[in-house]
Design brief:
Layout: H1 15-28, H2 41-48, H3 52-64, E1 68-71, E2 75-78, H4 96-100, E3 107-115, H5 119-125, E4 132-141, E5 144-154, H6 155-160, H7 168-182, E6 185-193, E7 211-219, E8 227-234
Helix pairs in contact: 1-3, 2-3
Length: 246
């Protein structure tokens, strides 16, 4: 990229909007490709000949548009931009992780255990059960952990879904896809969390960064959820989209 972009003259519209327009074009034409890091704020301010306050205002607009993401202590990065407006968001039944995680998942590590029934499990699964199946999934991109999921399932659902818990491929197919094909509805609550990194977990998925937390109940019948999922996606890899229509 040329060190000198065309000079910004006194505009009729605010200067930060002009800077926004210039950066937008550079992102769209691939000068700053997806996942690349922008120059530092002092460098960008110098390139555009503006104050850092003006530059930050422009960057804030790009962040709002989902084109740039600021990672604390690292800088500003170009995020994936979805040109296809037909892509379904959270409004359609399906695994929310694949709709909201900007990293491509190329491997999933699965662990499960059988737990005693707790008050919390009874509350979120809304039923009496003999035991609870607790499943952990670690989502990886090039061997790096980019998301984590914790699932609770009534032990009774194992036979209902014809699951062999020792058949990892079958269990993953059910949790990732088939349960959504069988379901008639789900509810999702979105929160922010920094509690996923604990010594009891096998892996750490981020350092000092918050996660977007998706609390999901998936229903095959209207009585109670067949699974209750907690999806954790670090904010640097999270992009939430909801498509509405009249």
């Amino acid at each position: 990229m040329n060190n000198k972009l065309h000079e910004l003259t006194k505009p009729k519209k605010p200067l930060f909007v002009i800077v926004y327009d210039q950066l937008y074009k550079l992102i769209m034409d691939g000068t700053f490709p997806t996942d690349s890091q922008l120059p530092t704020e002092p460098e960008l301010a110098k390139i555009f000949g503006v104050s850092r306050m003006t530059l930050r205002h422009a960057l804030a607009l790009l962040q709002e548009d989902g084109l740039v993401k600021n990672i604390h202590g690292k800088g500003n990065f170009i995020t994936k931009f979805h040109h296809n407006e037909s892509i379904d968001g959270l409004e359609k039944l399906g695994n929310p992780l694949y709709k909201c995680c900007t990293k491509k998942i190329d491997d999933i590590e699965l662990n499960f255990r059988i737990d005693l029934v707790t008050d919390y499990a009874m509350q979120v699964l809304n039923r009496q059960m003999a035991a609870v199946v607790a499943l952990e999934r670690w989502y990886k991109n090039h061997d790096k952990i980019v998301a984590y999921a914790f699932t609770m399932m009534p032990i009774e659902a194992v036979s209902k879904l014809n699951l062999d818990l020792h058949n990892e491929k079958q269990v993953l197919e059910m949790l990732e896809e088939k349960v959504y094909e069988l379901a008639n509805s789900s509810t999702i609550e979105i929160k922010r969390s920094n509690s996923v990194n604990t010594p009891s977990l096998k892996y750490q998925i981020f350092c000092r960064e918050e996660c977007d937390l998706f609390l999901e109940s998936v229903y095959i019948s209207d009585k109670y959820p067949v699974v209750y999922n907690k999806y954790y996606i670090p904010t640097e890899f999270s992009q939430i989209k909801i498509k509405t229509c009249k």
